[in-house]
Amino acid sequence: MKKLLAAVCVCSMLLCGCQSQGTYLKPYAGVTASKTADVSSMIDTRVWEGFAADLGVVSVDDSENGIDSETLSQIDAKEVFLTGTTDSTVLTAYNIYTQMPPASITKIMTLILIFDALDSGKIKLDEMVTTSEYAASMGGSQVFLEAMEQQTVDTLIKCIAVASANDACVAMAEHICGTEAKFVEKMNERAKSLGMNNTNFVNCCGLDVDGHITTARDVAIMSRELITKYPQIFNYSGIWMQNIVHTTNKGSSEFGLTNTNKLIKQYSYATGLKTGSTSKAKYCVSATASKDGVDLIAVVMAAPDYKVRFKDAVTLLEYGFANCSVYKDEDMPVLDKQKVKNSLKEKIGVSYEQEFSYLSVNDKSLNNVEKKLNLKKIVAPVKAGDSVGTIDYYIDGEKIGSVNIISDEDAAAADLKSYISMIFKEILL
Question: Measuring CA to CA, which residue among 249, 311, 244, 298 is closest to residue 271?
Fold first, then answer.
């Protein structure tokens, strides 16, 4: 009886509120590099001699671009943005807040929503999509889908990622949301959730229309979201040429897809991602590339022609590869089970939410990275996936990033009934 009364008293004290969990967001780096270069070489020769002097590296929160006139003379596009994919480090930026029509770069967000639907189980790669008359009527770049023609989701993703097909975009938008207008609403919601504060979508394919705008910064944000959350996009964006089959009442015929992103063929480190061009937007590209463990995104907007957009993209990427290195923690500390208060579970398993990687400019040594575990007191109720701490990383005392530590399992808050049941079980045993 004394044990029971004690349990009741303890229970009364433990039935309290839960502890709030915080999330650390790494600030953008602000450094300057100085290299010189001649970037007039043809892309396919891949002959590069460094980069222009004092290419500014700025925070996306800075209003000034910090790029000198000599560098600007080598960049012909109106907007450029170079960033890493792992920790949001901004390597260089110019006019990143200037709103411009995005043309078919719009399709990056369309692809995000398609993969969101795949991830949630709403659609499957092998299910058939029927083309409406409206989708078949799209102008601009297309794969000439006919009304009532059926294609798999997988095929339509290829058409979008490789051939930038407007008709495939609208077909998928209608398949997922019923109408393109409802799909566009979801696009804008997703953009807002990512912090794309200077973006507004009016259609899902990028055709010129009033109010359809974005910025180089926002394009980089959605590009990073697509390739980090859904890396399978590279299975599509890396295709150079491939045939699809049109099957209609007229019979079957093959149609050749050729990637609009010529960097896939001309630049050996290219992995994607999306091009765009219209009379208002001019020539744009969000170019992704990977070399020696360094993954970069270069955004070029409003270039005067398609050659310039690719030249500027390669210029930015080569600068990034020449001046950056990546640190990946391949020996993260082993995590023991952690005690839980206010629960019948004494301990729960915890794990790292993801691996840690950090993109560094060469003037910062990666030989003296320090890491510190910061585990919080865990108070039930806890759900699997809840943050219970962080592992923080430092170079010379400066914090460079962190990874969340999350619960692997649920731990319900114990009530009086639970404690009584547990005590009776112990007595019976």
Answer: 298
Rounded CA-CA distance 429/424 in Å is 8
Written as one string, the DSSP assignment of 290-310 is EETTEEEEEEEEEESSHHHHH
What CA–CA distances, in Å, run from 358 to 109, 232, 272? Answer: 26, 22, 22
Determine the Cα–Cα distance for residues 288 and 290; give it in Å rounded to an integer. Answer: 7
Q: What is the pTM of this model?
A: 0.75
- What are the b/e assignments for 377-408, b being 16+ CB within 10 Å? ebbbebeeebbbbbbbbebeeeebbbbbbbbe
User: pLDDT tens digits for 42-89?
Assistant: 222 222 222 222 222 333 333 333 344 554 566 777 778 888 876 667
Catalogue the active-site residues: 104, 107, 164
The vertex-310 CA angle with 321 and 164, nearest 5°, equals 115
The separation between the first and the last C-alpha atoms of the chain, rounded to the nearest angstrom, is 16
Domains and CATH numbers, the chain: 103-325 (3.40.710.10), 330-428 (2.60.410.10)
Q: What is the H or E stretch that residue 400 is in?
A: strand 398-407
Quote the tokens at residue 336. 């023991």
User: What tokens appear for 127 in the block?
Assistant: 């299910």
